[in-house]
Amino acid sequence: MAQKYGKVYLVGSGPGDPELMTLKARRLMDTADVIVYDQLPGKQILDTMPEEAEKIDAGKHAGDHTLTQSEINDVIVEKAKEGKNVLRLKGGDPYMFGRGGEEAEELVKAGIEFEVVPGITSALAATAYAGIPVTHRDHASMVTFITGHEDPTKEETALDWETLAAFGGTIVIFMGVKMLERNMNELMKFGKDPETPVAMVERGTRPDQRVTVGTVGTIAQISKEQNVKAPALTVIGDVVKLHEILGSMI
């Protein structure tokens, strides 16, 4: 008789506010046999994980990973092969700089059934909570999302800073705190106006959310003075000007 494997759910928990977690994500979390979780979902969500589920901390703090990505892949596959339904709980959306694609590939190789459950990305939710619409008829008709923390084993960056510097819309950088100064310098090197508005949104949608505002030319120094810490989004573009108006109403 063929062995029956469990199913794996790659679930996005959303940006941090528990009320922004989807109904499907909540239902699957409440019924999972095993939950392999990151820290990015936040304490408010992690504290509601069911007591009866086996819980495995995958870490994923900034600069501090309890498990390597390879080890996470192995754990997910191993638990599913034990016949357990596994919830892989991630912050934001699994396929938005969440390495969900890599985990999905490993599941395909192992012959394990899986399902992806999208989550609200912080690029849309944290900015909204900060009073910064990423598009606006008068300020931005385009938006692009990039990572500020590429794979360190890459020989060359995959980011086209020259194109980004000329980009006329909103740029949202994930995981960009550590490399903020370098990223801003790259933009200015290729002609980005140093006076372009920038906002750093820390712990977006959570009770302790904080927004720090500057420009491409000043935000690196301001963020140091304000001790900006990950997790934080970097938002670049004229839409940041709306924070002063819309952020005060939130």
UniProtKB/TrEMBL annotation:
The keyword Oxidoreductase does not apply. Gene3D superfamilies: Cobalt-precorrin-4 Transmethylase, Domain 1, Methyltransferase, Cobalt-precorrin-4 Transmethylase, Domain 2. PROSITE patterns: SUMT_1 (PS00839), SUMT_2 (PS00840). It comes from the Archaea. The keyword tRNA-binding does not apply. One of its GO terms (molecular function) is uroporphyrin-III C-methyltransferase activity. Homodimer. This is uroporphyrinogen-III C-methyltransferase. It comes from Methanococcoides methylutens MM1.
